Every structure is written in structure tokens, then in C-alpha cells.
Automatic annotation (TrEMBL):
Top-rank EC class of the record's enzyme: ligase
Name this polypeptide is given: 5-formyltetrahydrofolate cyclo-ligase
Pfam families, alphabetized: 5-FTHF_cyc-lig (PF01812)
Protein family per UniProt: Belongs to the 5-formyltetrahydrofolate cyclo-ligase family.
This enzyme's EC code(s): 6.3.3.2
Top-level lineage group: Bacteria
Catalytic activity: (6S)-5-formyl-5,6,7,8-tetrahydrofolate + ATP = (6R)-5,10-methenyltetrahydrofolate + ADP + phosphate
Necessary cofactors: Mg(2+)
Length: 182
């Protein structure tokens, strides 16, 4: 994709996501900063902040679990290299602890694909599996939304017994729901 394609895709994705009732009424959204070839998220993060939403971003811990920090704009991000893996953009400010995600009204999840059942294929590190388990243990039920390109919505992805379906996938072309908006 060209730089213009990426900008257009990011804007379309943000527009679709912002139409979700779950995000429209959210006070806190746990999200992430896209890296590599992932659909761009900064436009969406800034739009959520402009609405007065508290945006939490992950901080990768050495054991692949996630801590959280508040997003205060692109200037508040630090590029962090984690070993031999790709560099991530993480909040540079105060760490809120792994349980901070349990306060979110919606959680935006990265992924490689999602299937017709709403099962998400992640990158294999287990970070978001831990997040979903933490939410379940806390009795928290935020909306779970995956942000993908249209071509990443597929017929079937492998699933493990611990995997949980998401509520919706947002692509630049639209929204597909797997569970009704609550």
C-alpha cells in the first residue's frame, strides 16, 4: 500500500469504528498503536481522545503480559524495542498495572484475521489471551472489537479451547457483528 492508501484506510477504519455504539458511549477504551502493516490506529485514538474518552494503551512486559498507560496524544508515545521483535509504540507515562484494562468499556484488539464465528487469530505471543482471561476473572464484559483489513476476515481460523470470540470486526469497508451491541 502507498502512503496515501494507508492514510485513506486509517481514516476509513476510524470512521467505521467511531460509528459503533459501544465506542460512542465508552468512557474508557483499551486500544493499541498499530505497527508494521497493521491498519493504522492513530487517527482513531486521536478521535476518541477528542470525544473525551480515556484511551489506555498496552505496555509489553518481559513475560508477554500487558501493563497499561494512558494515551495523551502521539507526543506521549515512546518507540520501544523488545528484544529481537518489532519495535512497539507505548505510552511513556505512568504505568497503571495489568488490571487497568478491566475498567475499559471497550477493548480494541489487534489480530491477523477473524473468522465467521468471531474467533480472532493473534500473533501467537498470548498477550491478548491473558487480557481476555483477566477480563473474565474480573467479571468485566467490555465490547471486544478487532480492527482489520477487509481481506483479513476469513472463513475459519484455528482456535484453542481458551480462545474467546470477539463481538465485532471493523474494517475500512464496514462492521461485521458476531454478537449484538449491548
Amino acid at each position: 500500500m502507498t502512503a496515501d492508501d494507508l492514510r485513506e484506510t486509517s481514516a476509513a477504519l476510524a470512521g467505521r469504528a467511531l460509528e459503533l455504539p459501544e465506542l460512542a458511549r465508552a468512557g474508557t477504551v483499551a486500544a493499541y498503536v498499530s505497527v508494521g502493516s497493521e491498519p493504522g490506529t492513530l487517527t482513531l485514538l486521536d478521535a476518541l481522545r477528542a470525544r473525551g474518552v480515556r484511551v489506555l494503551l498496552p505496555v509489553l512486559l518481559p513475560d508477554n503480559d500487558l501493563d497499561w498507560g494512558a494515551y495523551e496524544g502521539e507526543h506521549s508515545l515512546a518507540r520501544v524495542q523488545h528484544g529481537g521483535r518489532m519495535a512497539l509504540f507505548e505510552p511513556a507515562g505512568e504505568r497503571l498495572g495489568p488490571d487497568a484494562v478491566t475498567t475499559a468499556d471497550a477493548v480494541l484488539l489487534p489480530g491477523l484475521a477473524v473468522d465467521a464465528r468471531g474467533m480472532r487469530l493473534g500473533r501467537g505471543g498470548g498477550s491478548y489471551d491473558r487480557v481476555l482471561a483477566r477480563l473474565e476473572r474480573a467479571g468485566a464484559h467490555p465490547a471486544l472489537v478487532v480492527l482489520l483489513y477487509d481481506s483479513e476476515v476469513v472463513g475459519l481460523v484455528p482456535a484453542e479451547p481458551h480462545d474467546r470470540p470477539v463481538d465485532a470486526v471493523v474494517t475500512p469497508a464496514g462492521v461485521r457483528r458476531f454478537r449484538p451491541a449491548s
